[in-house]
């Protein structure tokens, strides 16, 4: 197989999971802007997700968020997804919206609140059993706003206790992915603030506990690709939540703010053996002002473009330059790949897969946007409060 054929073959296997909540209304803490045609229930979210996969060929699974996507029959929801050419993916828990969680969930000082949060997490594992999902993604808004508000070490003990209980409940083919975020909504301490804290808990738990890297959850200037390389080296990178930020956790479309960073991350993924089903590529974005389905399609394409460029890095030439201490040549090899226009290559890949070469144009020509705007009238649109 030629080098170009190998790159094409790899690109044809890429899978990017889309988040159910990205199809619903979202916004800032000031206002949520509603859009025509937004899904009113998890089934309509799956209809939209199926369109993204239809036109990209690279979005075969949909992450659920509980209780936002709660239904009476999860097996029926899984069957509905299958009938539309997609499947249910990661189950995301929610321990941040109830009033009881004002001072924390699994790290709360009150054992009653901690039990409520743990019961929800265990319910999410039950849902995994019903949907066939492999991954449970955990993000905790737990933390403190003021020095002395709570005991920092005891909160870590409470967190460890809850994680151990969930880990024990997991099936043999299931994993937990622990997400970190350095601030917000807590501003003094966050209970899982960085990759080191997440890694320490996952290491103690065992092989079914992995770290997930949200690309928006870092301080400005953080070298995310170093984190990725280190977690891959330790066998603890479980997946990504892809998005972009200019300031903090902006949840913008992946690659919108810093496409070069996305390329650097994808190079380390490929270099470290992470381009495999063991590392989940997931989007976690809020499309507040842009049309949702085209934005998700564009996000998938952005990941594909960064991946294609990373696959084109001449690793032999790069290795020679690195071992020879040729700083400029090493950087030039990397930049040559990044500066390659891979859009013609990806158009070829799509055509070879029987897809339209331009997924966004194909979607716009499909009439789906007009159809759902006309049909999805009445009821309550999915999303959070306006």
Automatic annotation (TrEMBL):
<dbReference type="InterPro" id="IPR050337">
    <property type="entry name" value="L-rhamnose_isomerase"/>
</dbReference>
<keyword id="KW-0464">Manganese</keyword>
<dbReference type="GO" id="GO:0008740">
    <property type="term" value="F:L-rhamnose isomerase activity"/>
</dbReference>
<dbReference type="GO" id="GO:0046872">
    <property type="term" value="F:metal ion binding"/>
</dbReference>
<keyword id="KW-0413">Isomerase</keyword>
<dbReference type="GO" id="GO:0019301">
    <property type="term" value="P:rhamnose catabolic process"/>
</dbReference>
<dbReference type="InterPro" id="IPR036237">
    <property type="entry name" value="Xyl_isomerase-like_sf"/>
</dbReference>
<keyword id="KW-0479">Metal-binding</keyword>
<feature type="domain" description="Xylose isomerase-like TIM barrel">
    <location>
        <begin position="65"/>
        <end position="244"/>
    </location>
</feature>
<dbReference type="Pfam" id="PF01261">
    <property type="entry name" value="AP_endonuc_2"/>
</dbReference>
<dbReference type="InterPro" id="IPR013457">
    <property type="entry name" value="Rhamnose_iso-rel"/>
</dbReference>
<dbReference type="GO" id="GO:0019324">
    <property type="term" value="P:L-lyxose metabolic process"/>
</dbReference>
<dbReference type="InterPro" id="IPR013022">
    <property type="entry name" value="Xyl_isomerase-like_TIM-brl"/>
</dbReference>
<protein>
    <submittedName>
        <fullName>L-rhamnose isomerase</fullName>
        <ecNumber>5.3.1.14</ecNumber>
    </submittedName>
</protein>
């Amino acid at each position: 197989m030629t080098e170009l054929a190998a790159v094409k073959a790899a690109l044809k296997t890429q899978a990017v999971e889309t988040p159910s909540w990205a199809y619903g209304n979202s916004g800032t803490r000031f206002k949520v802007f509603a859009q025509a045609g937004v899904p009113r229930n998890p089934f309509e979210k799956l209809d939209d997700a199926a369109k993204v996969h239809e036109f990209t060929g690279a979005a075969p699974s949909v992450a659920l968020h509980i209780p936002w996507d709660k239904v009476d029959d999860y097996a029926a929801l899984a069957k509905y997804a299958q009938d539309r050419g997609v499947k249910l993916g990661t189950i995301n828990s929610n321990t941040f919206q109830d009033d009881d969680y004002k001072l924390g969930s699994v790290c709360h000082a009150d054992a009653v609140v901690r039990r409520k949060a743990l019961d929800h997490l265990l319910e999410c594992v039950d849902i995994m059993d019903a949907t066939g999902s492999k991954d449970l993604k955990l993000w905790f808004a737990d933390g403190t706003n003021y020095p002395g508000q709570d005991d920092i070490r005891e909160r870590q003990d409470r967190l460890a206790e809850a994680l151990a209980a969930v880990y024990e409940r997991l099936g043999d083919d299931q994993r937990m992915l622990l997400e970190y975020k350095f601030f917000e909504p807590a501003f003094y301490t966050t209970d899982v603030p960085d990759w080191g804290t997440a890694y320490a808990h996952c290491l103690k738990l065992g092989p079914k506990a992995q770290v997930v890297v949200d690309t928006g959850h870092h301080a400005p200037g953080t070298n995310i690709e170093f984190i990725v390389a280190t977690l891959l080296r330790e066998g603890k990178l479980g997946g990504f939540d892809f998005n972009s930020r200019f300031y903090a956790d902006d949840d913008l479309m992946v690659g919108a703010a810093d496409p070069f960073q996305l390329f650097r991350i994808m190079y380390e993924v490929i270099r470290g053996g992470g381009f495999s089903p063991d590392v989940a590529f997931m989007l976690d974005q809020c499309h507040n002002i842009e049309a949702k389905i085209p934005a998700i399609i564009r996000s998938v394409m952005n990941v594909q473009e960064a991946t294609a460029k990373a696959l084109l890095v001449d690793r032999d030439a790069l290795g020679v330059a690195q071992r020879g201490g040729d700083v400029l040549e090493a950087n030039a090899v990397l930049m040559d790949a990044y500066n390659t226009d891979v859009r013609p290559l990806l158009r070829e890949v799509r055509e070879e897969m029987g897809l339209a070469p331009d997924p966004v144009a194909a979607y716009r020509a499909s009439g789906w946007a007009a159809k759902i705007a006309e049909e999805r009238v009445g009821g309550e649109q999915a999303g959070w409060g306006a």
